[in-house]
Amino acid sequence: xxxYLPIEVTTEILxxxxxxSLLRFRCxxxxxxxxxxTPDFITKHLITQTTSTPHNHTLVRHYSKLHRKEIYSxxxxxxxxxxxxxxxxxxxxxxxxxxxxxxxxxxxxLCLSDDLFGYTxxxxxxxxxxxxxxxxxxxxxxxxxxGPFMFVLGFGxxxxxxxxxxxxxxxxxxxxxxxxxxxxxxxxxRSGCWRDVKTTVPYCVxxxxxxxxxxxxxxxxxxxxxTVKNRDRSFRSLIMSFDMGSEEFGDLRIPESxxxxxxxxxxxxxxxxxxxxxxxxxxxxxSNCSIWVxxxxxxxxxxxxxxxxxxxxxxxxxxxxxxxxxxxxxxKGGELVSYNCGTKASTNIGMMCGTKDSYYVDSYxxxxxxxxxxxxxxxxxxxxxxxxxxxxxxGDEDEGEDDEVxxxxxxxxxVIVQFTxxxxxxx
Length: 427
Known about the structure:
Domain F-box: 1-46
Radius of gyration: 22 Å
Distance between the termini: 73 Å
Protein name: F-box domain-containing protein
Structural class: mainly beta
Pfam families: F-box (PF00646), FBA_1 (PF07734)
Shape: globular
Organism: Camellia sinensis var. sinensis (China tea)
InterPro entries: F-box-assoc_dom_typ1, F-box-assoc_interact_dom, F-box-like_dom_sf, F-box_dom, SCF_F-box_component
Largest sheet: 5 strands, mixed
Helix content: 10-25%
């Protein structure tokens, strides 16, 4: 049939089909194989998926205490939260201690970093729907060449060039804390390499355990500006942004009531398609979370305190928003919970149990991104890229009891909180 259809018509038909069908259709003919694997078709299919296809599915990642590994699954965002995939095959088991950090999920592509439990330089882009991945080269600024440092990652999409980018903001550690401005590098899939960013970098700090929010073409992080005068430290919290197109930094004001609050207790997020801040009363053993939403992007006066969630009853970290308006949370016991902010009723969903800090939730979509570049390793293999973790982990090197990962999570957070609190003069 394709021999009788103009290539333009064939393209219009194929770009509307699901990923699994397109992967099979590569075997129909050389013409279809050539078409489906071109960058132009992959871009057209991506645009169709992001603009025309309703996103009714949810991606969930958690570290299973029962299986002692991280598990990825896709669920229908309905009342029963049906599991559509019993388990997505994860190709990097054994490549990290416990689990990877999920930096972000954009256009069907996950950005993973093995930096949660020590100094490593492994960053992977992975498309679970086509089972292809790309391991990034080692960045220029590392512990081996620069000594103690802290870095934060951002992941997003540049619509001008139709390219996905990873930005890495690295802060060297000095006698009085982190040195600003930081070193900034950007990796693009098309170039396959890191390059330094020459734009002006703001004199503020964003910590590596804070989440990113990719919205309106920019990555956003909670950050703070620290001022030291006559040995007195003062700070103000804000949101730092990085535009994936212009590769320029910016900042956004946060609600006035949060400016003087500790940035350690805040996380940037996308909530209901809006930029938001999750503000906890404290980072560890938290008992309350307020959700702030910027109703009009870029307008500081539009910040609104949408919900205040009491976490005393066993609830833990806020993960995101469902289509029905409920909030997804990770319970302190490890269950995934759907919480109704009106009735304050919570329901365990998903039939899973993991450590509360290992949960990641996002709207799920499939794409052909990495169909061309995937399964390439830029400069090294993922396993070879694993740097030796720093000494000081509690417990044995091998996985031990079920609670080892939770103890390690708590230990790592405590160290970070103590260090940052000292910088902010809160201890």
